[in-house]
Amino acid sequence: MFPKPVAALTPNTFAFEELPLVKPTGFREYDARWLFPKEINLMGVQALGLGIGTLVHEMGVRPDIVTGHDFRAYSSSIKLALIAGMQAAGLRVKDVGLALSPMAYFGQFALDCPCVAMVTASHNDNGWTGVKMGANRPMTFGPDEMGRLKEIVLGGTFQYRDGGAYEFVEGFSETYLKDLKSRAKPISRKLKVVAACGNGTAGAFAPKLLESLGVEVVPLDVTPDYTFPRYNPNPEDLEMLHAIAAKVKETGADVGLGFDGDGDRCGVVDNEGEEIFADKIGVMLARDLGKLHPGATFVVDVKSTGLYNTDPELQAVAVKADYWKTGHSYIKRRVNELGALAGFEKSGHFFFNEPIGRGYDDGLLTAIAVIEMLDRNPDKSMADLYRALPKTWGSPTMSPHCDDEAKYGVVEKVTARFRAMKEAGEPVAGAKITDLVTVNGVRVATEDGTWGLVRASSNKPELVVVIESPVSEERLRAMFKAVDGVLRENPEVGAYNQTI
């Protein structure tokens, strides 16, 4: 029998080589993330694979699974350990090799596998690893499945089965890129596009796809380097967006596109070097697609701009917005439940349903959608399309440190504090509180439309803070000061990664 995992071990000891290490906090709401080897060792990864196989059979799902790995020093070894565990639990594994997460999701359809286990730490710093999993295409695991997986793995209640198998699928990336190109319309407009990959996995795929569409590609940080020497491949971070903006201005590009570490997200910079947060890109795409699909529903996360509800152009084509929980699994599932045309997250996860996509998040498909939007508006630049939106002042996603063990409790206290303020008629940032949305953390809104959000990060020891005002930058800063003031009532909250 495989040993029961333990929560802590010291590296460079015999015990570290004899026992599986799995830190419990690595099981997140909709995927898994650990520092390797501090929080999980290779035997711990085997235990995770055993757990995935046990859960798949428990769910009654056909035991065929796609796996792949992102570009990091250790991802291939993590994947092989995961495969060993999954095979021991009776899963038939199809390995697509070095991959983007959406390439593995595509494999569920192209290779007829109900299940997926993609080894990736996404945009996390080097040193992190993780797995994005699912057993009901195109959805990935949510809290229920992740909670049950955690029980199985930490309890060591694995079910061994015969029938496990392994197949390496050679050349699958070409199949994936060919499918993406087949979904793109012919591009008639001459476009120059910066493709920024942050030295991550997307460098192997994004420039090739964009070139096949007939646009001129300006590569930026596409050479693989898992130390991420310039910045983490995260299009939500200003450092990456600033680098894209500089390259756009230097080369006179029509648009800059930035892809995260596992290629399921896309960030956008316009032709004037203006960094456009992904929720505003979502509004622009909703305007464009709403004309082609009047009355469509778009799911957006609670971090996103209020324009989805108030933009006159979206109202004119009867577009419906559904604000939902942040997180790729939550939005993906909601898009599927509602039959929405698309789902947009402020982090840059975009989910296009049929007839555009298959319901999962793919940064390369998002890039196609942005390029097609420009092609459908030949007399307008990206900056023109952005300026056409009603003006709001918004913050980037700001993340103060807060330990995994404390962050959910802090959010509960902050939510209770804002609720008490609303009930007592106490203003926030000098204005009356008119609404509290508590579907995911707390989003507090005032009578002039200014709002602030606090929620727990689902994949890092952090909180998430986002502020927006349709009135002025002064109101944006006042709301941030007020929200931060409430946060600072909790000593567990540390320094921000970035602020306004």
From TrEMBL:
**Protein family according to the UniProt entry:** Belongs to the phosphohexose mutase family.
Cofactor(s) annotated in UniProt: Mg(2+)
- Residue intervals of the Alpha-D-phosphohexomutase C-terminal domain: 424-484
Protein name listed in UniProt = Phosphomannomutase/phosphoglucomutase
Q: Which UniProt keywords apply?
A: Isomerase, Magnesium, Metal-binding, Phosphoprotein
Q: Which gene encodes it?
A: algC
- The species this protein belongs to is Methylobacterium jeotgali
* Coiled-coil boundaries: none
- The residue ranges of the Alpha-D-phosphohexomutase alpha/beta/alpha domain are 26-155, 175-273, 279-391
Q: Source organism's superkingdom?
A: Bacteria
Concerning SUPFAM superfamilies, the annotation shows:
Phosphoglucomutase, C-terminal domain, Phosphoglucomutase, first 3 domains
